[in-house]
Amino acid sequence: MIDPSIKSQRSQSFYSFTSCLTLAVFVILFLTTDCKGQTSTQDLREVYNKVNPSVVIIHTIDRVVPSGKLKQSASMKGIGSGVLISDSKVITAAHVIQTASSAVVEFLSGKRFTSKVIASSPAADVALLQLEEIPDDAVVARLADSENVSIGDKIFVIGAPYGIGHALTVGYISTRHKPNTLFGGFESGEFFQTDAAINQGNSGGPIFNMHGEVIGIVSSILSKSGGFEGIGFAATSNTVRKLLLEKPTPWTGVQGYLLSGELAGILNLPQPSGLLLQRVAIGSPAYNSNLRGGSVKAVINGQSILLGGDIILSVDGIEVTGEESRLEIRKKLREINKGEKMSVSILREGKAINLSVYFPD
User: Fold this and answer.
1) Please, which residues bridge with residue 358 across strands?
2) What angle (nearest 5°) sits at the alpha carbon of residue 209, between those of residues 192 and 29?
């Protein structure tokens, strides 16, 4: 038989060993968790510092062209974000520059350079700017394959919310919206939804994965207050490739409002629908083709619009009849090559006029 005292000593040794082992495991787990958290923070800091110089602030001026009794022109300043994706090209959101008469790109160093719009797809809210030059220390960002992005992936955004340049926010991919499934007329693009903080001024800025690759371009926020409420949208990097790089969508420089139903009758349209031009960017193909934007503010059905501009009735023989015709027109526009023209039929001051919009090289 085993001596009871020896059995007791063995039991105490076993419990002592078990307690030490448990304590050691706890300490290791604690240190590992702490190190992982610290490493994650360090990794984000390093990635941010690496890609931050590729992010730019875009300063725009949108001029209202005088027409009719309006004698003085007005200018409206705007601000957005963007990202350098080659040695001379910057991607941003279409709504940032669509009707801007000038767009100046500011780099991290504070140096500013003029740019021109060379492609824009309002239906996906993405646009491409060409720079005359860039600073020597500029960093070019890399576009990722957005098909490899999954719901739940951690991401970060760099931009200029409310003009505060190069601000960092962090979040996750909430979901993915396929083309023609998101409200607001964004039928041509695929979008990510994210909970990362996005505010005015972030538009056009990049969403990065944790490797520092661009997976999306910030488009808009869903908000009742006008500020961040946890839902933001960004066009995917593959949408950018398709609409801006592989087969660029020409920039027209117009912003329109679809007229239909009772309103089309009130404005004496000779057909059920038409596109009322709101703004036309100075120097754009539309402006150089003598298309005119609105000049008189009005509120109709609670919505503020500009009256007095040309009403587009058809484009290259495609009559404006509603959303389906707009899809056809956008498809036609994507097929236009530089140096070609599009015929446009408009209604101006009660008269039908035919114009040609030329897209220069």
Assistant:
1) 341
2) 120
Shared-domain flag, residues 239 and 310: no
Q: What type of residue is 261? A: G
- Retrieve residue 119's tokens: 């492609």
Q: pLDDT by residue (tens digit) across 206-245? A: 999 999 999 999 997 654 555 555 688 999 999 999 999 9
Residues 193/183, Cβ–Cβ less than 8 Å: no
Question: Mean pLDDT over residues 256-271, rounded?
Answer: 90
List CB contacts of 5: < 8 A, sequence separation 6 or more. none
Let me know whether 285 and 260 are in one domain. Answer: yes
Mean pLDDT of 187-193: 86
Cβ contact 84:140 at 8 Å: yes
How many domains in the chain?
3
**Closest-CA residue to 66 (of 307, 294, 312):** 294
Residue 239 domain-assigned (yes or no): yes
Round to whole Å and give the CA distance between 275 and 309.
10
Could you tell me which residues are beta bridge partners of residue 344?
Answer: 315, 355
Report the CATH number that the domain containing residue 111 is assigned in CATH. Answer: 2.40.10.10
Whether residue 57 is contained in a domain is answered as yes
Q: Is residue 138 part of a domain?
A: no
Place of tokens 């991607």: 91
Question: Among 128-132, 180-184, 307-311, whose mean pLDDT is lowest?
Answer: 180-184
Q: For residue 180, what are the domain limits? A: 143-246
Structural contact between residues 327 and 334, judged by C-beta atoms closer than 8 angstroms:
no
1 belongs to a structural domain: no
